[in-house]
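Milestone 3.1: sequence recovery, worked example.
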């Protein structure tokens, strides 16, 4: 204890004096801020919102673009492999995908030296773990044993997958769980090792727990890893096992070593993959193997639109921070100017300039720290909302506020506290001491006004940029929503039976669908019901076709090839898709051995120009297969998304093509959707085993997925633009109101000499709007220059759209005018006698 006491007293007198002085400055600043609660609250909230928005965005982008997967050893050495191939017919350029089909991986593995370790894994999907009567929803991934080797991950309990569990043709029913899932679901009980649980529909033995912190190689966290050989997919409707066809794609990772070794791997891999032809895969002889870093968002793969929008919103958030900083600096400038006399008195009493600068800086830092605390509270909520908004289907393993976010918030808070406080402190030191002591409040009314005007100009300019961005995304969203997709979306719902492992119930579902349709069609409120393999606007199945007497088939620009939809009778009535010619499928087509099809308008014109399509035929997949006869022509409809060029499409009776029906398409009368969904689940449950629920979506729900990028941009730009507009309005009002307060004598004299209220109002408006106008001009030029950064994210509108630019200018002008009118109206009503007596 004596030693500790002596160590505590080792501080020098100078250090002790500095600590005591800082403590006094903090106390003095706190008392001063307490006396001005309105000013304090305004500054703290402005900083809190500005910093909090940026902290939330930093947390998201840090996880996407900077932070490697937790638990991976030496992550900078791990590389992801991608396939680069022709997009459709080649007219739309090339695509880069992280997904490699198993036959391609097998060829790659055989071509490389055995010493090179290749890890493969599937993107996590949802299933359930059953332990007795307890059902726990989990995210699972199928991997090979080398997956953990490449990641450098060890088992914290039990073991990981071994070589004897790598035979792709023999399912090995063992499982490894994450440490987080082990602790949450099993309370960290080591007795689960060797225990059998049901994952999906199969019994697996838990053999190990991965090391703490590791939840996979993507941001989408994994709870359970299963061997790749436990996959039960049927090969996408193709004959034979999934590992010989276009059935399941894997992501691939490797530690190539040196850059030269990586280039050799890519060269050998490209040569190995090019000859591979897969059933169901459009063959591309120019396919190429490329690589990227372990941080997936930095790789060459085509980035999700939501992620691209998020990167642009990061710039918007930074603009909000600048606006907030400019506004706070202006408020501090006004406060420092109002304290001009106080500062002069303190200097006359012997306080040095440096000490006064220190006092004002400590005050701004205290405000910034309070704002930083508000920012952390705000970001912990806003960050979760932002993650759900940008990437709603991702299962996040980590929280929003981590050490990186804390460091970022602290750094920005410190920087803003110094910058926002130092400028007002320096400005406050400029006036002459004698003049400040002798003068009244009106002396030097416009000292430092150029800085305040410049800060207000910056706020107005950046606010206009954000308003233009919001307008562009709102217009894009409106344009996308007005696209006709071909279907009648009114009162249409899609029902999909849910299972822990859907592929394991294919035969049951195939047998149950006709009976379910028969029963559901008699339910009150149902106008039409049908089923299909893929629901409208929920994807497409591309098939190679052959025209009799032709060596090749024509193809639309940018098209992957003909899109096939396997449907039941009444599909067109249920979906609202119009038949232009011919007839619909009937029950006889379902049972007949004579194959028939219905083609889309674009396909009919492309294949048989100037001729009726009815009665024509073509073969599917095999040139020597049966010729499917056209019995109808349907209106074109979107298959893959809202933004879609015309594609060749045709419809086949689902029983003739042996596809698995997965979606019930039901057209209901208004107000009966909820009842129909409950009845459909009651009908379906006795027909299949282990159904866990019925997923019900309206057409609006399906469209929501497609609208997300534009809705995301419109929502975030509008929210941040509104926040910036409020902050800018406060800034305009504060600066103009302060200017008016400094000119009370002048206003009194003008009124005494005969100036009308309108003249005073015009004077105040002209001074304030001149500053706002300069900001608007700068903002308009900046918005036009930055428009190219969001051009690819817009639809049906150009970044230089004059109506949006004019609308933003008018809105900014109105806000600026209102901010000037309030203090101007007060100035116009001032009593001359009172104004002339005011010091």
């Amino acid at each position: 204890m004596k030693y500790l006491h002596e160590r505590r007293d080792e501080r020098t007198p100078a250090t002790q004096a500095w600590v005591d002085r800082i403590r006094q400055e903090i106390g003095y600043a706190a008392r001063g801020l307490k006396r001005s609660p309105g000013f304090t609250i305004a500054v703290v909230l402005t900083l809190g919102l500005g910093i909090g928005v940026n902290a939330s965005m930093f947390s998201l982008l840090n996880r996407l673009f900077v932070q490697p997967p937790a638990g991976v050893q030496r992550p900078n050495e791990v590389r992801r492999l991608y396939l680069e191939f022709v997009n459709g017919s080649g007219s739309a350029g090339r695509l880069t995908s992280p997904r490699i089909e198993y036959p391609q991986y097998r060829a790659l593995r055989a071509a490389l030296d055995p010493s090179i370790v290749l890890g493969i894994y599937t993107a996590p999907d949802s299933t359930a773990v059953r332990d007795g009567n307890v059902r726990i929803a989990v995210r699972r991934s199928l991997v090979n044993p080398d997956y953990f080797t490449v990641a450098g991950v060890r088992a914290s309990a039990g073991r990981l997958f071994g070589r004897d569990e790598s035979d792709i043709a023999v399912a090995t029913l063992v499982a490894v769980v994450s440490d987080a899932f082990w602790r949450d679901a099993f309370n960290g009980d080591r007795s689960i090792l060797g225990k059998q649980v049901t994952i999906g529909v199969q019994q697996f033995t838990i053999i190990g727990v991965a090391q703490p912190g590791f939840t996979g190689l993507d941001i989408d966290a994994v709870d359970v890893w299963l061997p790749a050989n436990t996959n039960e997919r049927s090969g996408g409707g193709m004959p034979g096992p999934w590992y010989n066809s276009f059935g399941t794609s894997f992501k691939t990772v490797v530690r190539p070593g040196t850059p030269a070794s990586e280039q050799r791997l890519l060269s050998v891999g490209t040569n190995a993959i090019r000859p591979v032809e897969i059933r169901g895969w459009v063959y591309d002889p120019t396919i190429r193997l490329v690589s990227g870093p372990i941080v997936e968002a930095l790789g060459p793969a085509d980035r999700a639109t939501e992620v691209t929008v998020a990167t642009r919103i990061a710039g918007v958030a930074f603009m909000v921070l600048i606006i907030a900083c400019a506004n706070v600096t202006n408020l501090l400038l006004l406060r420092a100017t109002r304290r001009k006399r106080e500062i002069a008195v303190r200097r006359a009493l012997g306080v040095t300039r440096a000490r006064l600068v220190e006092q004002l800086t400590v005050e701004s830092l205290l405000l910034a720290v309070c704002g930083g605390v508000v920012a952390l509270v705000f970001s912990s909520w806003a960050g979760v909302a932002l993650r759900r908004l940008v990437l709603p289907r991702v299962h996040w393993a980590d929280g929003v506020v981590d050490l990186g976010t804390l460091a970022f918030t602290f750094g920005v808070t410190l920087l803003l506290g110094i910058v926002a406080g130092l400028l007002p402190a320096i400005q406050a030191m400029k006036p002459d001491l004698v003049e400040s002591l002798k003068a009244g409040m009106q002396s030097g009314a416009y000292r430092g006004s150029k800085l305040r005007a410049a800060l207000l100009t910056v706020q107005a300019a950046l606010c206009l940029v954000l308003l233009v961005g919001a307008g562009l995304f709102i217009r894009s969203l409106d344009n996308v929503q007005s696209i006709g997709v071909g279907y009648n979306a009114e009162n249409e719902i899609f029902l999909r039976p849910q299972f822990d492992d859907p592929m394991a119930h294919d035969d049951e579902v195939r047998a149950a669908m006709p009976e379910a349709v028969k029963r559901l069609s008699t339910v009150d409120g149902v106008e039409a019901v049908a089923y299909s393999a893929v629901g409208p606007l929920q994807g497409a199945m591309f098939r190679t076709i052959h025209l009799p007497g032709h060596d090749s088939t024509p193809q639309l620009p940018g098209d992957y090839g003909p899109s096939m939809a396997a449907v039941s009778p009444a599909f067109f009535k249920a979906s609202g898709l119009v038949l232009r010619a011919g007839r619909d499928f009937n029950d006889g087509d379902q049972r007949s051995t004579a194959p028939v099809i219905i083609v889309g308008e674009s396909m009919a014109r492309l294949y048989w120009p100037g001729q009726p399509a009815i009665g024509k035929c073509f073969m599917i997949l095999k040139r020597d297969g049966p010729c499917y006869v056209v019995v109808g022509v349907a209106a074109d409809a979107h298959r893959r998304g809202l933004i879609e060029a015309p594609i060749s499409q045709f419809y086949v009776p689902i029983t003739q093509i042996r596809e698995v029906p997965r979606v019930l398409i039901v057209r209901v009368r208004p107000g009966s959707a909820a009842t129909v969904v409950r009845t459909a689940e009651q009908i379906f449950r006795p027909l299949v085993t282990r159904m866990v629920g019925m997923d019900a979506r309206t057409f609006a729900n399906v469209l929501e997925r497609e609208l997300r990028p534009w809705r995301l941009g419109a929502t975030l730009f509008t929210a941040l633009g509104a926040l910036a507009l409020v902050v800018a309005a406060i800034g305009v009002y504060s600066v103009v109101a302060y200017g008016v307060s400094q000119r009370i004598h002048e206003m009194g004299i003008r009124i005494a000499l005969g100036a009308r209220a309108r003249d005073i109002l015009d004077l105040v408006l002209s001074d304030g709007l001149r500053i706002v106008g300069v900001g608007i001009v700068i903002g308009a030029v900046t918005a036009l220059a930055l428009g190219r950064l969001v051009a690819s994210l817009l639809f049906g509108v150009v970044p230089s759209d004059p109506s949006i630019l004019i609308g933003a200018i008018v809105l900014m002008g109105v806000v600026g005018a209102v901010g000037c009118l309030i203090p101007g109206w007060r100035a116009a009503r001032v009593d001359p006698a009172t104004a002339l007596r005011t010091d």
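The radius of gyration is 34 Å. Confidence is low (pLDDT under 50) at residues 1-9, 439-448.
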